[in-house]
Amino acid sequence: MTTRSNGEHHHGGGPPSYQQQQRRPHYGGAPYGGGSASFRGCCCCIFLLLTFLALLALAVALVVVLVVKPRKPQFDLNQVSVQYLLVTPPSSSAASAAMGGTVAAAVPAAAYLSLNITLLFTAVNPNKVGIRYGATAFDVMYHGVPLGVAAVPGFEQPAHSTRLLQTRVIVDRFNVLQADAQDLVRDAAISDRVDLRITGDVGAKILVLGFSSPKVQVSVDCAIAISPRRQSLTYKQCGVDGLSV
Ligand SMILES: *[C@@H]1O[C@H](CO)[C@@H](O)[C@H](O)[C@H]1NC(C)=O
């Protein structure tokens, strides 16, 4: 430092050397270099802290999973009670033709299906923690054609509990077309049996310490048969669990 200031003194006048001397501290490496080093250190610290927190969160999640051992809730169609099921052919001539067996010429254009049934579902929560279910609409289908829906509102279910949910499906003169109409009229009149399918996916979230897990899907897929003559359920089979993921 001393040698340099000396050299400058030798070369020129005073003012430039003062400027340079004044400027020097601004360009000087020491204060800024120290700042960036501490900044880098701080960065490293934050990174380590974040890594630590992430590992901690992972460990807590692991412990929770091990302690809670979350299991898939069960959601089943328990009972079906039939208030009424009516199959009305569009006109008597088409109906008699269909029933007479001379089907070649007579292709009934439509038949009407009216329905009033009550579905009773059972929700079982086998977990040590609560579950929240989303609202679900179950489809009621005839030959793959949706006739109507059975709505079940969302609800929360406490740990280790069973809950019954009742819902009603009302279908008023659903227009069943073409080949399905023919089958429907024949099934009802001759076999005394109308096959329906009830399907739906229930979305559930497991609640742990105020947090909710990702959605778990429970599939309901049931085949039922109703006797129009007796106005009652004659057959019910749920599962092979459908496509449960
Ligand atoms: C369906 O059946 C229930 C119970 O019998 C009855 O209260 C309700 O009015 C019926 N609904 C219709 C639309 O017929």
TrEMBL record:
Q: Which UniProt keywords apply?
A: Membrane, Transmembrane, Transmembrane helix
Membrane-crossing residue ranges in chain numbering? 46-68
Organism expressing this protein natively: Leersia perrieri
Give the Basic and acidic residues compositional bias ranges.
Answer: 1-11
Q: Name one GO biological process term.
A: defense response to other organism
Matches recorded under SUPFAM superfamilies: LEA14-like
**This protein is called what?**
Late embryogenesis abundant protein LEA-2 subgroup domain-containing protein
Gene3D superfamilies, sorted:
2.60.40.1820
| GO CC, alphabetical | plasma membrane
Late embryogenesis abundant protein LEA-2 subgroup domain location: 124-222
